[in-house]
Amino acid sequence: MADGLNGVHAYWRVPGRQPRAYRQLAALTWLLSILSWRRYAGPVELYADAPTTDWLAGLGWLDHYDRTTLLDDTGLDDRYDRAACFALPKLLALARFPAAVLVDTDAYLLAPLRLAGPGSHFAHLELGDGDFYVGLHGLRNPAGVELPDAPELIGNTSLFRAADPALAKRISAAGLAFLAGNPATPGRDVHLHMTVAEQVLATHLTLRAGAPVASVFDARWSTRSLRWLTPPPAFGHLWNLKRGGGPDQLVEVFTQVRQILVRAYGIAPDRLRTVLERA
């Protein structure tokens, strides 16, 4: 295991049954995310609710974590819609683990990771040039959280570490306030509120604090063209694919992830086959 960067997977179970192919890809990528972080970055901890830890224990993945902390979700369902606030545990983790790197469970490393220089570190940066980020002042915002109307740059938080613990806690508090009882705005993308709470506020509050916004992999993405403006980052992240990828793309990535687990990490094919039957 590498030394240095403490990673955290933060997750809670969202209602609804995903297609089997999605669950199988998620199971394999989740394991690769754990193993690649431990190899290339440092220890990794799970911060999740009981249904998530039970699912991972059933797959045999739970023992790969360096530590597991149970997310106490008492009362959260009174304020937050789980389906709309799918990444809310990341906001909770920011306050609980303010010096750690948040790592998406569908993100994995392909080479050693180092975070160089000051500031908040994001996996990559996105240009706010697409319709998705236009007119944020028009969003439902009963808590009155300060938002930029049309952000020029947004940090992608598939990997994220705040510039300092105090900033991490401010981002957490602002995101939780923005989402409380506030899952969506009519006519806007159903994922926008969660993205604002998780990514836009992390970027905006970093800039307001006078800290640099750093791209871990020095990569930029256009939300208008949906293309990389630089060479793609040297890591895997399957969010866009899982959200809208076609069957051929899913099969291709599934095959790639499975091959990495077998060839680079020595996971027996028979073990993966057994796990996939349970996923």
Characterization of this structure:
The chain has 279 residues and is an alpha/beta fold. The protein has helices at residues 20-40, 50-59, 88-96, 165-179, 192-208, 239-244, 247-265, 269-278, and strands spanning 7-11, 44-48, 67-70, 101-103, 107-109, 120-127, 153-161, 213-215, 220-222, 227-228, 235-237. β2, α2 and β3 form a beta-alpha-beta unit. It starts with 6 loop residues before the first strand and ends with a helix. The mean pLDDT is 93.
Could you tell me the strand content as a percent range?
A: 15-25%
The rounded Rg comes to 18 Å
The total of helices stands at 8
Which shape, going by the Cα principal axes? globular
Cα separation of the termini: 27 Å
The biggest beta sheet reads: 9 strands, mixed
The secondary structure category is alpha/beta
How many β-strands, per DSSP?
11
Spans of at least 5 consecutive residues whose pLDDT stays below 50 are none
Helix content estimate: 25-40%
Overall pLDDT level: 93
Order of helices and strands: EHEHEHEEEEHHEEEEHHH
Summarize, please.
With 279 residues, the protein is an alpha/beta fold. It has helices at residues 20-40, 50-59, 88-96, 165-179, 192-208, 239-244, 247-265, 269-278; strands at residues 7-11, 44-48, 67-70, 101-103, 107-109, 120-127, 153-161, 213-215, 220-222, 227-228, 235-237.
